[in-house]
Amino acid sequence: MNILTLFVIIPVVTAFAIGFSKNMKQTRVVAAVGMGLQLLLSAYLVYAYLTERAAGNVAEMLFMYDALWFESLNIHYLVGVDGISVAMIGLTSIVVFAGIFASWEVEYLSREFFISLILLATGVYGFFISLDLFTMFLFYEVAVIPMYLLIGIWGSGPKEYSAMKLTLMLMGGSALLMVGLLGIYFYSAPDGAPLTWNLLEISKNTIPVEMQRFLFPFTFIGFGILGALFPFHTWSPDGHASAPTAVSMLHAGVLMKLGGYGAFRVAIFLMPDAAQEQAWIFLLLTATSVLYGAFGAIFQKDLKYINAYSSVSHCGLVLFAILMMNQTALNGAIIQMISHGLMTALFFALIGMIYGRTHTRMINEMGGLMKVMPFLSVVYVIAGLASLGLPGLSGFVAEMTIFVGAFQHTDAFHRTLTIAATASIVVTAVYILRVVGALLLGPIKNDHFNHLKDARWFERISTVTLVVAIAAIGMAPLWLSNMINVSLQPIVTKLSTATSTFVSLF
Amino acid sequence: MPMNAYSYTLLILLIPLFSFLLIGLTGHKYKPIISGLIGTAGLLIVAVLSYMTAIKYFWTDHVEGTAYTSFKAFETTWLHLTDNLTINLGVLLDPISVMMLVVVSTVSLMVHIYSLGYMKGEKGFARFFAFLSLFSFSMLGLVLATNIFQMYIFWELVGVSSFLLIGFYYDKPSAVSASKKAFIVTRFADLGFLIGILMLSFTTQTFDFQTLVSSDGPALTHTGGAVFMGLSAMTWALTFIFIGGAGKSAMFPLHIWLPDAMEGPTPVSALIHAATMVVAGVYLVARLFPIYSIVAPDALTIVAWVGGLSSLFAAIIACTQNDIKRVLAYSTMSQIGYMMLALGVSGYGGHDGLGFMAGNFHLFTHAMFKALLFLGAGAIIHSVHSNDMREMGNLRKYLPITHITFLIGCITIAGIPPLSGFFSKDEILVAALHHNIYLFAIEFLVAGLTAFYMFRLYFNVFWGKERHYHHTPHESPLVMTIPLMVLAFGAIFAGFLPFSELVTSDGLPFEAHINYAVAVPSVLIALVGITVAFLMYRRTSAAPDKVASALGGFYRGAYHKFYIDEVYLFVTHKIIFRYISQPVAWFDRHIVDGTMNLIGNTIEKSSYLIKGFQSGKVQQYGYVFISGTILLVIIFVYLW
Amino acid sequence: MDSNILFSLFAGAILLFAILTVTTRKVLRAAVYLLFVLVSTAGLYFMLNYNFLAAVQLTVYAGGIVVLMIFSILLTSHISEKARMATLKEGVFSALTVVAGALLTIVLIINHKFVATTEPAISTDVQNVGRQLISYGENGYALPFEVISVLLLAAMIGSIIVARKESLASNVKSTDNQE
Amino acid sequence: MTGNIPLEYFLVLSTLMFFTGIFGFLTRRNLITMLMSIELILNAVNINFVAFNHYLYPNQLQGHFFTLIIIAVAAAEAAVAIAIIINIYRSFKSIEVDKVNQMKN
Predict the structure, then answer these.
(1) DSSP state of D6
(2) What is the pLDDT of residues D32-42, one digit of tens each?
């Protein structure tokens, strides 16, 4: 069987197996085994991919598999990966694996919980391997829908409201996206040729510029909503705050990356002309996102809100870099997606664990946790340092690649915006240190905190997995960067065929 | 010169990293003292390797009369950015990096040894040594950086290790906020550094130091380019980079974190906030000195004035502080101002580069005597458990070794010959005199002030009236006094190093002489400062208060550090928090989110409006169905 | 008797009683009026020489359904009780719609030219009807006949189950216990 | 026997009856009378079938059998409907449509 298809089959089989499990213990063991297998599989995929490339296979996509499943609209189940998707799949596996362990003690309807969670993961995997726009969209929806249940049933706080808001806004995005994708489909081939959803085929054709102008905003905003594009980001703070731990992890860690990945793979890649013409609008919006999210985070009191705003800022940087449309910035965007996925997942995992002990997420009610739970605190500090871009951890690699890449842009307007975006590193430091100071350091504010226990073994597995990944990317980024770079070549070539020019405000 | 002969310098980086990881991951498993010994042993090896390198570089491998070359002992690609720009990690050896290697490893080793005694019994003993190793690794990496981006990487790392060490007593709120402040202020400066790097790399398409400073490289041959507000792109880039350096080196107005950083354990202050990390800014400017000097003289002028003003500013404040560590902190700031000024007034090449040589020379001697002073202060604090000099007095009889070594430090910093401070300071004054008479005047004044406030401290602590101590102060153990003696030795004799033959702006040695026209007055003013201090503080008297009240507002201003902290507090809390962050948060909740909710509510409302159609009443449905059918029939039959 | 007069008589009765059925406020009377309508319809069938059909109409409709209705009326309401009607507004609107629909249909009917077949007529006596009903060749209706019998059977069983007292409640209870 | 009665008379009669039934269906609130209105409608349709069969296609008996089947279905429908109505009456103590608005009581 095609290795990529396995990525969809394993979760589905796992979900089925969970359906037959008798109690919570069996459920979580099955889930952990399934997702562990998935993690191994993705490690193997990385290995297989690198071997293929080393053997001189220069095809744009590897491990392709094609099956027609809806003939009248020419919809295929077409899968294939390049370095970028491989990296994203790796990210997904790690986050899902950590997420399973982070939700080890979900007792209420645990079977249903894990099934939904794994269903969500299925959608994400499917999205990353698909090369057929329709199938991609299908998996996208598969990923979004379980979210509603997961937040609505297992969430906390105003969960119904948040779930509804999140789902509606993402569905709104899907609606825009559907328009964009259909438009692309109808212009996917030159006159007379059969229409196609195949991404690679479409990229060989040039969609008429007038149509691009019309379709690009739909597609970009449609994906951008998932990527927390200002001002469509408000689902994110509420949704994250209400979601249960693993869902926040998956959502911020992986699902939001679908937005960035899609915006890049579909919107920019297929419609480079319109992208260049309209980049300035979206650059302004994303640069706003970056700073706005960071400033917004300073003032929050709830840990999850802080992290949600921080995600807005970091994901804004992803879209910002994508819009710069040069190889280095794009590379940075991908690394940033991975890096942010890992560290935000780590953050949410930690917040969940801390919340499970202190029963509050308000930073002004906490303090001095370093003394009572050193392990969790140290990991929290590491996550914080990764988030504020400390060298040696993944955030630095990503941000620097983006900044250097974006600053190489020939246009002064773009460079100015880059400088504005770099200011976020200071603001990020401010809110991260504020949280670390208020949460972990200082005297213990509440006596019953003295009796709290440090991390249990499954929590250690969950966090250590993520920390190792963060540190590995941070210390030796070259292989990842190279893997992505090779795959960016054809895309950058396609982008350079665009005849439009960048619009500059200067 | 074969490259391989120096490849072992890589170990200088790897050993502290290894001991950091070892102590950090396994330190809680064994006795704390073992962690300390691991860290110290690692540093000992590093120090030996550094001395070996220095001897080999400066003397063994050097052919008399030729320029010192700079070469990479090791280099590997860390991250590939664009075709031209790659971030490499490596080891660059040239006169200043080798000199810094000696400084960092010496001071760090001394501090490690000292800490074995000073931190004994502390709860986070292993953690402390882990962080020290991390710091040593980062600082050495910074010093040996082959390119500006590697420097930035380690720049951030020293920042974070400084943060961790300042906040070592993490349950003390003041330490937590001091560490936060240090990190954020330097982070803000680092933003300038980063922007500078971006601009520089955009213009020159390289990060590499050797390429940047080579005479036919893209930086030095760069002409024209975009001009913004009357300054060229290179000037802007270098000014931004200097902001980074100024932040790390606590130059006015980014100095506010340094006095607060004294919340950290005293050995940390000696290592990070006196001898090594804070001079990183000086080192950075020295690194890029050819570019500053040739392409962006305007930026260099800024460096000179910022350095000069900072040194004066800090010296004035130092005269009024009572916390001995804060006095030393302001003194550090003042001395770094000297170094900056020295670089700022320097020219490039030959004797013109006197300032460059003097700045580095002062960096070297300052590291010795300031580390000595801090460690001495640590010994004092260790024995009386207070930072406040008003609670001390007549300590000379309890702490004889500390007393002598501290006195040596004070004389050195005051610039009395033949101790090392005299030589380096004298050359800075000469360079300043050649360049700008006002800057010279400032520095001349500062020389007097320095002598005054150091001896004020000295007399207050070691002489004066005996205070009531909780328990009799006692001399520190050998493990703490030996580093003091070693550093005192360094402070005395470092001045005799032929620095002008080793570290020069273009690598070529030149002859430097003592300029008596400058040296004699500067020694005199130092003596005046000492005398004044002697008169005022030898015995506890009312004289200081009289002087203070005579100076009135000026004294109060200096005592309150000229209210710079308050200005920052105002800017951050009032402006950024209240007028940016809070409105952003409000805007997000109410306007952006409100719009989304409004859309949701509108849809809900309109659905209420049309809900009547879905009444669930069969007859209503029937009615609508039938009328609809009739209408359709009419339409299709008659109107179509 | 002239067929026109007979037709007018039946038609008039049908319309009159139909309107009465839907307008009277006494439910039991409505049932009786319905009975009259159905009987008159049977009369029409007789007129058209469809004797078997008319007989079925009388036995099934008049004799079966209406009686069933009367029983259920007696079970579910008091005789003196007056049925609630729609509000005046609803009544008026319904009437308007209905009149419009009727007019439209009538106009359509009148304007349409119906063309009759020229084939010779076949007998509609009971014998012929019966043969066709159970034959399966040309003009045979055995299959619909079977289908309709199954349907009737199903309806019979269904109505018995639905109307059975407490049947549902006890079922639900038993399933609850199982879980 | 039908003599000179035109087909249209039957059709108009059935139309009027049909719409009377509809009127009843729309205005009655009582489930049983609504059922009666439905019977009226069915009857109107039956008349139509019979008339068409008789006038237009006397060579076959399709309309005749259709009517027969409709009558059978009407009987089945009435039986089931009345069973439901009685059941509803048990639950709600009423058989008025606008009071019966819950799936479960």
Answers:
(1) -
(2) 888 999 999 99
What is the reported pTM? 0.80
SS3 A227: coil
β-strand B86-93 against B71-80: which pairing, if any? antiparallel
Q: Confidence band (pLDDT; 50, 70, 90) for C179?
A: very low
Give residues 134 to 163 of B whose Cβ lies within 8 Å of A.
Answer: 149, 152-154, 156-157, 160, 163
| CA distance, residue D91 to nearest chain C CA (Å) | 10
**What's the pLDDT tens digit per position in C13-27?**
999 999 999 888 888
Residue B1 has pLDDT above 50, yes or no: no
Q: Does A442 or C29 have the greater pLDDT score?
A: C29
- CA closest to C76 among chain D residues: D89
C102 within a domain of the structure (yes/no): no
User: Is C50 within the bounds of a domain?
Assistant: yes
**Whether residue C79 sits in one domain with residue C5:** yes
The C-alpha angle with vertex B228 and arms to B224 and B229, in degrees rounded to 5, equals 125
DSSP letter for each residue of A39-77: HHHHHHHHHHHHHHHHTT---SSEEEEEEEEETTTTEEE
End-to-end Cα spacing for chain D: 56
HSE, CB side, 13 Å, CA atoms: give it for residue C89: 1
Contact A120, A149 (CB under 8 A): no
Q: Which of A93-97, A340-344, A421-425, B214-218 has the lowest mean pLDDT?
A: B214-218
Judged by CB atoms closer than 8 Å, whether chains meet at C151 and D60 is answered as no
pLDDT for residue D44 is more than 90: yes
pLDDT per residue as tens digits for the range B184-230: 888 888 899 999 988 888 888 888 888 888 777 777 777 666 666 66
Q: Which of B152, B184, B593 sits opposite A430 (nearest CB)?
A: B184
User: For chain C, how many structural domains are there in total?
Assistant: 2
Calculate the average pLDDT of chain C.
Answer: 83
Instruction: Give the pLDDT confidence score for residue A504 in this predicted structure.
Output: 64
- Tokens describing residue C128: 């012929």
DSSP letter assigned to residue D96: B
Structural domain spans, chain D: 29-92
Q: Tell me if C117 and D56 make a contact (CB, 8 A cut-off).
A: yes
Look up the ipTM and state it.
0.72
A380 Ramachandran zone, left/alpha/beta (phi>0; psi -120 to 50) = alpha
B123 touches chain D (CB under 8 A): no
Same domain, C64 and C135: no
Q: Does B618 touch chain D (CB under 8 A)?
A: yes
Q: CB atoms < 10 A from the CB of A53, how many?
A: 19
Write out the residue range of the structural domain in which residue C167 sits.
122-179
CATH code where residue C3 lies: 1.20.120.1200
